[in-house]
Amino acid sequence: MQNHDRNPRKRMHLSAQLMFTPMMHAIGSWALPQNRTLDDFSNLGFWQDVARTCEESFFDMCFFADHLAPDDVFRRGDRTLAIKYGVQWPVLDPLLLIPAMAAATEHVGFGATMSTSLYPPFLLARKMATLDHVTHGRIAWNVVTSFSKTEARALGFKDMVSHDERYVQAEEYMQVCYQFWSSWAPDALIADRSSLSLFDSSKVKYVTHAGKYYDIDGCLPVHASPQGRPVILQAGASPVGRDFAARHAEGIFSIRTTAKAMAEFGRDIRRRAEAAGRSSDDVKILFGVQIVQGRTDAEARDLLHHLRANVNLDAALTKLSGRTGVDWDEVDLDSPLAPMKVPGVQGVLGMFTERPAGEGAITLRQAAIEFGVSSGSPQVVGSADTIAAELERLFVEGEGDGFLITPAVLPESFEYFAEEVAPRLQKKGLLRTSYPTGTLRGLMAQH
Hints:
The protein has 17 helices and 13 strands.
């Protein structure tokens, strides 16, 4: 067993959580006067500026969450609420943003979410390899399995497989993708002018695979990319999801509400990684936090008050129902939430039911509002000094490798971070002051 003591003076890995939509996590935040997302979110220049700002803060990557259908679980499948309140809707395709953001930057990486339940592995392998080329080795794939029947129907599928079976399918999917990405030898390009031979065909393989879910015979039409394959990201919270992440992921996102819970999650993942034959250092664990900033602590608390006040309860319950797969309409709003197995994302409910000893149970109303503001991420609220100190505490006590940062207001939260918080973290020796040359995989491997 390897030593799991974490060096408190190592440097943070930071990732920005984004979504190609006018309203990401904080419901109603588009209406705040300082939020420029509504007017600018469909303009490439807006996102290029966001990428530059993240690079100024020495982030590892800009990460895009995604989904393909409006949430329609709440209130017996009401399809209008998510659209009416803009609950992470509409959602444009982030894969088309990434090349423009990469062209405006030199070092910061880009993570894209694509589902093993919805995309054919051939198409995904092609898109990821292409993006790895055009970003010069700065692409990552967030591997998700999907449960939404609405997404399935939109893409022409009749239904979704069960939770644990989704990971059986995903395991086969990964093996197919790995075969595609390794099917081109790095030196297959010969460009022999005398024979006019561009590639050595003996170094390009057809992929043949016959399994439970996929029967494939094909050649990937993209030559070997700078990283060989994208950096693999994952956020599984259930036991089967954690095992999957421990086998495949190079970066794991998780939401834990306390430093103690962060440390426990990290130790569990590292044990699972070692059981899968990997080094625990092969996996970087980034915990979700939401930055709520102000020139003073009081100003930051005032922003948080406005964020909560802007959350429509029906919109929040629509979002919570969509992520958990549970229609919360028939549940008493002021009754305490209890642990239960959900058909959707198990970790979402766990954010509110797995609370530290001594803290009372949270009610459905409270959970919906908090989820409506931060998607369950713990909030770091205050001035730059307060934010830097709290991130340091969570980093050291939580024993993680860094943070997935959700903005309260876009792009203001990231601009404030670059101007005020990042320099304070650098002064503490907790954040890099320059980028190394190389790929995103190399960047994430740094300590």
